[in-house]
Amino acid sequence: MFEHLDIDIDERSGVNRIHLDRPERRNALNGALVAELKEALALADADERVRVIGLGGHGPDFCAGADLAEVQASVEEGVLASLREAEALGELFTLVRKLSKPVVAVVHGRALAGGCGLATACDLVLAAESARFGYPEVRLGFVPAMVTAILRRNVGERRAFELMALGDTIDAREAARLGLVNRVYADAEFETETSAFLAELASRSGSALALTKRLLYGADTQSFEAAIAAGARVNALARMTDDCQAGIRKFLSRDKKQDKKQDEGKTA
């Protein structure tokens, strides 16, 4: 179905694994790949079998960034062609936040420039210990422009400026310390550990995850008071979901069993 993506759905766990599949180009983001990725993410979000989306890359790297040959071609076509290409990538970044299901970047090798931006745009980032992250655009006289909005939210303004202004590449442990990465795993256990993490996340309530994601990102443009009010509305809505009702019944049933055991112990 897709030329530049490899997709696998585990119906038992509810995990949809999407792999960028341009290993000969280090999974560089060209227009075709960006379009396919937007379509694949939308399809996964609409698929009732899917609860969590894992995004990785085939070959030695997660993603080396934008395809510079295509960037150069757009420059030669003029500013409108460059704008169309940039906006398409920006739409991909914003789409991740709009999806109801968690999107988890599973990063090995290098995640650089637009590739680091793609990982940063995901809801969570898992990294192999040998992975490398960076925004080296400044070294080409370029700017990691679209990711700025996301990066400053993850690491703060000063750290974001340092990463973008110096263009240094950092290792996975440093990326985790700064807030770019959630979990770091030893290379030898990377596939096993990340698969387990995705499956565990997929075992959580789908409705709760969707509401949590909506509430978290919706707070970006709200005042403190508005965010609290939005939280109250989501709280009330969450109580009415099937998952929450089942969870409450299970908890109350467990409490009753514990009370019964305690009472039996007192009369024994």
Please describe the structure with a list of short key phrases separated by commas or semicolons.
268 residues, three-stranded mixed β-sheet, 11 helices, alpha/beta
Structure in words:
- The structure is a single chain.
- The protein has helices spanning 31-46, 68-77, 79-98, 114-121, 148-155, 157-166, 172-178, 190-202, 206-218, 224-239, 242-267; strands at residues 5-10, 15-20, 52-57, 103-107, 110-112, 124-128, 132-134, 169-171, 183-185.
- It is α/β, with parallel strands linked by helices.
- The strands form 2 sheets. It has a 6-stranded mixed beta sheet, sandwiched between helices.
- A hairpin with a 4-residue loop joins strand 1 (5-10) and strand 2 (15-20).
- Helix 2 (68-77) crosses helix 3.
